[in-house]
Amino acid sequence: MPRSTPVRLLFVCMGNICRSPAAEAVFLHKAAARGLADHFEVDSAGTGDWHVGERADRRSRAEGERRGYALTRLGRQVNANDWDVFDYIIGMDEDNRRNLLRMGAPRERLHLLCDWHPLPTAREVPDPYYGGDDGFARMYDLIETACNQLLDALCTEHGLPH
Fold this sequence. Notes:
Layout: E1 7-13, H1 19-33, E2 40-46, H2 58-67, H3 81-85, E3 88-91, H4 94-103, E4 110-112, H5 133-157
Parallel strand pairs: 1-2, 1-3, 3-4
């Protein structure tokens, strides 16, 4: 039987301006394309507070727009209330995972996005912030593939249509 409340996902990176807002936008877009948007509540946050209230990085927005995604939410920092709100807290890399654990995130709800990536060599979504545009293209490639698999897995787990 399908779940009566939405499945809640929080995507997390360091500053919430590159990877996590991209993952949020990609996942929402893919869920909507399958007619499943009402079954999910999705947000993103950063472990740090450097970019609270800022738009996503212009390079992340540009690559996202090129692929059909809108990154509209302003940056925010993860907080202890998130542990009670979200069913899945999904970090982009091991540094995020360690930071989230130090901040008190419940281990049983904490995952890495690439846990759903089919290639065993894809363990993390690298931070493209200090690199060029090609890093953002690679970031989206990893996020798109992992989000497809994540959506499939959540549909199976929660009895939602594929």
